[in-house]
Amino acid sequence: MSSRSAQAKTPTPRSVKDLRLGESGTICCLEDPEMALKLLEMGCIPGTQVRLNSRAPLGCPITLVVGDEDYTLSLRVSEAATILLKD
Amino acid sequence: MARATLISDPTGAAASALTLEALRDVPPRSHRELTRIALIGNPNSGKSSLFNQLTGLNQKVGNFPGVTVDRKTGISQLTSQHRAEIIDLPGTYSLYPKSLDEKVITDLLYDKVSDQYPDFVVITVDASNLRRNLLLFTQLADLGLPAVLALNMMDVAEQHGVQIDIMALQQELGVPIIPMNARKGVGIAALKIVMSRQLGAPTVSFFEPSEDLLPMIRQIRYYFNLHNDYLALHYAHQFRQISFLTADDKAYIAELVEKYDFKPTPRQAQETIDRYARINDILLNTVTVVRTEKNEPYSNKLDKVLTHKVWGYMIFFGILFLMFQAVFAWASYPMELIDEGVTWINQLVQTNFDGPLVNLLTEGVLAGLGGVLIFIPQIALLFAFIAVLEETGYMARVTFMMDRIMRKFGLNGKSIVPLISGVACAVPAIMSARTIENWKDRIITIFVTPLMSCSARIPVYTVLIALVVPPQKVLGIFNLQGIALMGLYLLGFFAAIFSAWLLKLILRTQNKSYFIMEFPVYRWPRWKNVGITIVEKVKAFVFQAGKVIVAISVILWVLASYGPGNALEQAETRVRATAAQQQLSAEETDIRIASEKLENSYAGLFGRTLEPAIRPLGFDWKIGIALITSFAAREVFVGTISTIYSVGQDADMRTVQQKLAAEKDENGQPFFTPARAFSLLVFYVFAMQCMSTLAVVYRETKGWKWPLLQLFYMTGLAYVSSLLVYQLFK
Hints:
By secondary structure, chain A is of the alpha+beta class. Helix content of chain A is 20%, strand content 30%.
């Protein structure tokens, strides 16, 4: 969250929402401060790798595999959009 | 297999021995007092399995003092002389509560002087997911509470190639660790021995509040006489939500927070990040992961089918169909048995005793009790299904598939289960809404579920449809009566969805609606857990809802059996006189007397009083009485109508229909015109005529606000719709 101001300079920061199925990314920061608290507790710490595991039949919600443990997190696309990725 | 793993695993066995060795010099607790132990852990960490293993059927559900959330406690026999009270706390990921459920934890753990304060906590941790599970542990340890770590699901960790050096971990964490497999009962004995001892506070701390906060923390500590910095920090974070603080206390903290410019959100975020960094260090020294190549979890493969865009929905509807089948068809046999049993007892009482008290007992109490007991098979079966779906982890997938659709209407993926169950009976359906964490989504679900057409409406539907809809074929295959019935179910469903959408616009909530949840791994259900769930739900229903239902049926009985002054006696003499004149049979005379008495009873009086109000709907005072009596339960309608229209109580449906068809209005025309019948049908689709539902909503929302709102809303909806139908079609 501290790097939020730095992020603002890049025109369109990629978020977890933009991952393709099976693609991985590394979390850079969390945008929504209130939601960040929940996501942090669930293991979405900046620097952690996440992989887009599946989408619900109607495209939302999605599931992510967080970190190197076999731990699957389900969240809505609007929530995934607040998790920004490193390039 | 897991037992063998634990014993053959040298580290695990040695660690247990070390734990017990270290405790040898510690004196056992005094045997006189009951040790109070709180059980806490992440969702899906096996907490309820452990709770069930420790307490079995010695469980009871009560309220947390002052909080509207269930509190589950149980008694555990730790050793032959030592018993403990185990408090089951809601599953949570951290000590910063996000929901009403989780607030219970902070209220319990932050008030040291409360008589509910636990002597120590047992923290369950999923060994296959240590990193995330240890977050809660480190927070609890920093509160300074004596703690034991139940390192659960060792078998799963093993399968994942996770190797834990338990001795080293115990050293790093500073509390006794018991490796276990709660589902199979492995490690329970060792845990019980540790639990029967006097434990000290954890010897390691994991997080120090930053230096600049110390002046504020010191002031809070001094003011509240707190024993540690971290607890004081939590007061600063959460004072608004802590229920035992007085207004003055809160004002004091608010002032400090202002003075020191304390920003809770970034502080909490930083704390979580720091804790994870520390946990990573600890795990680096104590855990090695040996990854086997073919490590795609079988859960993922199952998910490819079970959440597939075609198969996923088909399987889900298949399961729903099976559930309906169970609740409608399979449950009917035990329900008949219960019905017969109650009738048998009723007759036994009636043939052996006499007097007004006996009538109260048979027509009031026993009739009411029968109305409660008859639902037991449906409740048991429905909860068996739901418990299995929960236990296996499938429910999370259903939620996942339905969330997008349900959200549009202010509901939640999880609302689908109560809505579907509501077609059988709203009572267990509303109870199953507990799986919805979000307060607003849950309230909306509870509010709209009774609009789904339950099985109690079927007798009313069939009688009235048969009366006014001809049994004609449409398009060769469809039956017009069937279409009418289907239309009524759809009407109920759309009313539920529309009401949910309406409520979504009205309700305000301070809790943000998240859908961030863990996707649990598929597991076989533990039948013991399923069994305990069934027993618990049935018990809750019979005792909690039963009390209210019996009370109401007694009141209704009194209203229908007594009238002002000696109106009933006069009615009887009148009927006897005319009956003698017309030379009616004794049986027919009795039926006439019953009908006449009902008309002159308080219930009849209410019917008369009600008449002006329901006349615009096309109803007369006779239907008014039926509306009043069937307020307790819809199926009473047919019985009441039979009595009023002078049909014997046990007459079959066809005679009821013939009587209804024969009923004439003041002009000598048939009373039940299609307009009247449809008006009545629509009334029964919408009106909240079910004491059991009101009682269960009262129980689930812990207050009269929601059941009363529901009553007024649904009755209002019924009234307006009936009015429209009658005025448009008459």
